[in-house]
Amino acid sequence: MNGSFRILPRSIAALVLVSAIGSQAEAGFLVGSVNNGPGTNDNHATVLAVIQAYNAVNDPDLSEDFSLFKKTDNDAAFVYNTTNGFFIYSDAAGTNLVTSNAQLENLSEVWFKYTGDVNLLYYSAKSKHDVVVRTFTLAPGLNYVNVSPKDLSHISFWKGPTPPKDDDPPPGVQTPEPASSAMLLIGLASIAGRRGFRRLRGKSDSAA
Fold first, then answer.
1. Which pairing describes strands 4-7 and 86-89: parallel, antiparallel, or unpaired?
2. % of the chain exceeding 70 in pLDDT
3. Which of 22, 29, 168, 207 falls between 20 and 30 A from 75, CA-CA?
């Protein structure tokens, strides 16, 4: 892929993350950015290339298993209200809600939090020529978004695989249907009853 990548080394990323949690203003950390000239877009291939470039010089690797969840400039997938779990603010204190993509496009930086149950991994911000990719985290504070010093075009949110629930069976193990479980219990009870009857009959014959 043509274009210039800017990748954040792991040592600096760790400092950013610690500083972010302390300031409660930038919870995630910068993965990298790319400028491919006019028409640069934050599609899956571009975001994956940024992550792969990061993984090439850092350890441990970031996950490359992700897909698009929502994009702020696509009304069919993203609604600017808090019912979808996204809270986007124009200030680091988290007091001024952004309520439209038109409002977002007039800003060079925003902050957000997500309260839904989707396994968000990354988010990417796009300006006219640049794409910036950051990790998402549920740590205290707000996730920071910018393509400094340019105005934002949109934000894309990227999700990973759904983590298994605590009560989910291991892969390859099927949970029996309720009817099957009931029949199994009846069968076990029947076997136990026959064995008990045989024991009692044996005792009775011995006593005779």
1. unpaired
2. 64
3. 29
pLDDT of residue 1: 44
Domain ranges of the chain: 4-159, 177-208
Range 94-113 average pLDDT? 93
**What pTM value is reported for the model?**
0.69
The full DSSP string for the chain is --SEEEE--HHHHHHHHHHHHHHTS--S-EEEEEE-STT----HHHHHHHHHHHHHHSSSPPP---EEEEETT-TTT--SSGGGSEEEESSTTS-SB---HHHHTT-SEEEEEE-SSS-EEEEEEE-SSEEEEEE---SSS-EEEEBTTBPP-EEEEEE-PPPPPTTSPPTTPPPPPHHHHHHHHHHHHHHHHHHHHHHHHHHHHHH-
